[in-house]
């Protein structure tokens, strides 16, 4: 069966008792349909019957459906919920089940949706997912949908429809939010509200089930907040090594608690939160959390590959209880240290939990962030590594001076390369003079000073690269929309010019404030779409 024909077979349109279109739905099986609660409310509420039109099955007669008991999650008005599962009065065996799928979601990820706006028999639209700067209301469960430049408008008639990942064809969410069509509730959040949906869902969870199990009677609440802050604020390229202590320690329990709070699916089942706990981490801010207890290196590697099928780049990965794995040395040496060494290059965030700071794996991870480490007695090799690291830091600091001033709000790293070069020169001079004893005495301290400086620098470079890439993307979007306006003879249109000039100024002139620039680009794009729609 062709992919598009398959999709038609799980697409339905929902009507109220008077035949008015209320929204869309997604077929789960021959008896069940998934939709948004606000669509049901439009039809009269959870006790009302809805008419189901199988738009992709010409031979199927319309059916009637009502809300399944226990499968009603209305929106709280603050970016939470808005789900309902319906049961058909009569099964329709010719449908095809929608491929609901757990997967990490990324900012700007391209998706599509099929809705039934007023006066239409149904049409596709394309959108990109919003990121952390577009939180889904106070509840934070929803993800913003931004239609692409050429796409049909989102709005009434799209509510309840499936949101499909363009690259894989998986259903990754449902359109929610009354009359807007600009929000999506992800599949993993849906599973948190309605675990019953798991029988229709593929894909591995983001967080291992063991993270939800109690590991001790006490929880270090302050450390829970540290974990939540890290998920909310840590920049790409960050590698955080955590000394948790024993499995039942307050810190170990706090780490796991913070990880669960960052998961879309498991955070909804967390019992009463400690009163001293501050802001929660953003929903979905952990892409994968692996409990390494008893696992081999290959098992952890396969868990990572299974969840992060498109690679780890740009993701947040947690591996805990590394010392308790079946092969801690192999796990660190073959899997985790290489990831830590490339964290800045890949733009990933890596949180690694060890039982003790003295664990051999901790030193290996720290060394991995600086590349291959020579043997302790290879003073010349260690000095060469230090030289390379300090020069890398110097290049990063020069890059920072060139790039950071082009953007507003960038926290500048202190200049440390010159001071570290001076200390390294002393070590080199002692080596040339044959004073190996003096080098051995001082080289450890220098290595301990250089390692965090280079780690900070790599994180800063990843941040700056991200800012540059984001600005280039916004410039490209603005140019594409401006080209579209010119193609349709809208050069010099006063309304469009009024929207275009601020966007161009923010992206070209002076330090760029990206949030304001993105808003201006969106405003111009909306103005162009509106003018084109006005012209027919």
Protein described:
It is a single chain. This protein has 536 residues and is α+β, with helices and mostly antiparallel strands. The protein has four domains: 3-202, Thrombin, subunit H (Beta Barrel); 209-368, Rossmann fold (3-Layer(aba) Sandwich); 379-465; 469-534. The protein contains 14 helices and 19 strands. The protein has helices at 3-8, 37-42, 187-193, 221-233, 250-261, 297-307, 328-341, 343-346, 360-368, 379-403, 417-432, 436-487, 494-508, 514-534; strands at residues 11-15, 21-27, 32-35, 50-53, 63-73, 83-88, 100-101, 110-115, 123-129, 135-136, 142-147, 162-165, 171-176, 183-186, 201-202, 239-243, 288-291, 316-320, 349-354. The strands form four sheets. It has a six-stranded antiparallel β-barrel. Strands 8-9-11-14-13-12 form a six-stranded antiparallel β-barrel. It has a four-stranded parallel β-sheet with strand order 16-19-18-17, sandwiched between helices. The protein is globular. The mean pLDDT is 86. This is Trypsin-like peptidase domain-containing protein. It comes from Amycolatopsis pretoriensis. InterPro entries: Peptidase_S1_PA. Pfam families: Trypsin_2.
Which key phrases capture this entry?
536 residues, alpha+beta, Thrombin, subunit H, Rossmann fold, six-stranded antiparallel beta barrel, 19 strands
Largest sheet: 6 strands, antiparallel, barrel
CATH architecture assignment name of the largest domain: Beta Barrel
Coarse morphology: globular
Please, what is the average pLDDT? 86
Spatially, the strands of the biggest sheet line up as 1-2-3-6-5-4
Total number of domains: 4
Number of helices: 14
The CATH class designation of the largest domain is: Mainly Beta
Which structural class best describes the helix and strand composition?
Answer: alpha+beta
Protein name: Trypsin-like peptidase domain-containing protein
InterPro entries: Peptidase_S1_PA
């Amino acid at each position: 069966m062709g992919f598009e024909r398959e999709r038609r077979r799980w697409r339905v349109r929902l009507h109220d008792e008077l035949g008015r279109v209320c929204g869309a739905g997604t077929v789960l099986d021959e008896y069940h349909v998934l939709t948004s609660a606000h669509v049901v409310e439009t039809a009269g509420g959870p006790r009302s019957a809805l008419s189901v039109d199988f738009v992709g099955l010409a031979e199927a007669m319309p059916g009637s459906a009502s809300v399944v008991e226990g499968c009603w999650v209305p929106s709280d008005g603050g970016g939470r919920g808005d789900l309902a599962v319906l049961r058909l009065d009569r099964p329709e065996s010719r449908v095809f089940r929608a491929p609901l799928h757990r997967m990490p979601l990324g900012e700007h990820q391209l998706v599509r949706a099929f809705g039934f706006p007023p006066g239409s028999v149904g049409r596709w639209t394309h959108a990109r997912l919003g990121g952390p700067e577009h939180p889904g209301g106070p509840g934070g469960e929803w993800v913003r949908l931004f239609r692409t430049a050429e796409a049909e408008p989102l709005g009434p008639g799209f509510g309840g429809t499936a949101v499909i990942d363009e690259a894989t064809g998986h259903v990754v969410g449902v359109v929610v939010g009354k009359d807007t069509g600009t929000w999506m509730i992800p599949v993993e959040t849906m599973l948190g509200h309605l675990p019953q949906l798991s029988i229709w869902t593929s894909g591995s969870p983001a967080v291992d089930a063991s993270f939800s199990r109690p590991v001790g009677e006490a929880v270090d609440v302050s450390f829970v907040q540290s974990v939540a802050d890290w998920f909310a604020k840590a920049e790409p390229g960050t590698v955080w090594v955590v000394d948790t202590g024993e499995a039942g320690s307050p810190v170990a329990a706090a780490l796991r608690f913070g990880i669960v709070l960052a998961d879309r699916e498991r955070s909804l089942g967390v019992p009463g939160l400690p009163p001293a706990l501050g802001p929660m981490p953003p929903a979905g801010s952990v892409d994968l959390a692996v409990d390494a207890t008893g696992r081999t290196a290959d098992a952890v590697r396969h868990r990572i590959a299974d969840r992060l099928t498109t690679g780890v780049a740009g993701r947040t990965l947690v591996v805990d209880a590394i010392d308790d794995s079946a092969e801690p040395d192999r796990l660190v040496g073959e899997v985790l240290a290489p990831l830590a060494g490339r964290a800045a290059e890949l733009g990933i965030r890596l949180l690694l939990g060890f039982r003790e700071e003295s664990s051999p794996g901790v030193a290996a991870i720290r060394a991995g962030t600086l590349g291959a480490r020579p043997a302790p007695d290879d003073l010349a090799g260690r000095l060469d590594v230090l030289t390379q690291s300090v020069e890398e830091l110097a290049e990063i600091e020069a890059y920072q001076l060139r790039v950071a001033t082009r953007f507003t709000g960038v926290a500048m790293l202190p200049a440390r390369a010159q001071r570290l070069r001076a200390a390294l020169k002393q070590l080199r001079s002692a080596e040339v003079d044959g004073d190996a004893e003096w080098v051995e005495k001082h080289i450890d301290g220098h290595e301990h000073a250089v390692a965090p400086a280079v780690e900070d620098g790599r994180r800063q470079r990843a941040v700056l690269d991200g800012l540059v890439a984001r600005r280039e993307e916004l410039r490209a979007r603005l140019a594409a929309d401006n080209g579209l306006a010119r193609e349709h003879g809208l050069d010099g249109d006063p309304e469009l010019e009024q929207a275009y000039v601020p966007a161009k100024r923010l992206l070209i002139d002076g330090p760029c404030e990206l949030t304001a620039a993105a808003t201006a680009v969106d405003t111009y794009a909306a103005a162009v779409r509106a003018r084109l729609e006005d012209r027919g």
